[in-house]
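Hi there. Long-time user, first ticket. I'm pasting a complex I've been working with (about 307 residues overall). I'd like to know whether the download I got is complete or cut off, because the file seemed smaller than I expected. Thanks.
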Amino acid sequence: MSALEICQWINDTSWATSIRESDLVYPIIETVHVLAIALLAGTVAILDLRLLGIVLRRAPVSKIAGQILPLTWAGFVAMFASGGLLFAAQASKSYLNPAFRIKMLLLVLVGVNPLVFHSTIYRSVETWDQATAAPWRARLAAVLSLCLWSGIIIAGRAIAYY
Amino acid sequence: MSLLPLFQWVSQAPIFAVMRDSKWGFAVVEMVHLVALAGLGGVVLLADLGVLGIGLRRRDLARQLSPVFVWSLVGMVISGALLIAAEPMKCYYHPAFRLKMVLLAIAVIFAFTVRRRAVDSKLAAVLSLTLWLSVGLAGRAVGFL
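Hi, the file is complete. Here it is re-exported in full:
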């Protein structure tokens, strides 16, 4: 079974069809998806800005990261669930949509970024926890995160234009 | 005083022709509007939920995050104004748009007055969250209705 066939199968399930054809359910899920941007990308951006030494300069990085993380996860769950349903409702169309494909690629990259960050420079966080701006490798991760999340939002919006 | 002449002027002004006539002019500005939403919404959520004991718990959080709040708001207002310029007459007569503008004015005034002074007030935090969520919902309704 090819990826396109899988998408077509999802697209044609009764629940995906009912979301697609509902005048109310689709807009509600889309609204959740748009507003939860704040919970996911917004909270990540504040941590990124702390790493860059732009906000909360006096707060230890590890403390900010630890306190923000539950909200970021809540945002991730809301985005993943609502995004999954939006995809299912338009699965065949989405699969062929170039903006959707770019968004999926950027999502993979934005997932790899914290994996690398946590398994490298963040291991030594005790040595730079109080520093105004983090070491350059952590600042690079922050800039990449800000760019990737912006790109994901932009690509996500672009899906509607194809 | 009616704002109708202003909206009519915007709908004719050559300077906004790119917003009215090009598909990508609108699309690009809308993308900026959404990216700025991440910043503004992120600050509002962290500052208000923090007062309620969820997430970031630091004294005076709203003031420390205020530069991000102000710059995101500037980005949202400028991009939002350009989005209005793309379809001013539709906006003028749109109930959700009118509601959004009223809620936005209340939310902004509240943020710079009550919310800024009552930094530890849970009530002010809940009101702030409610106001901004309403602005977002009304904004979403502009696109749907």
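A couple of notes from our side: DSSP finds eight helices and no strands in chain A. Helices of chain A lie at 3-12, 14-21, 25-51, 61-89, 91-96, 98-119, 125-128, 136-158.
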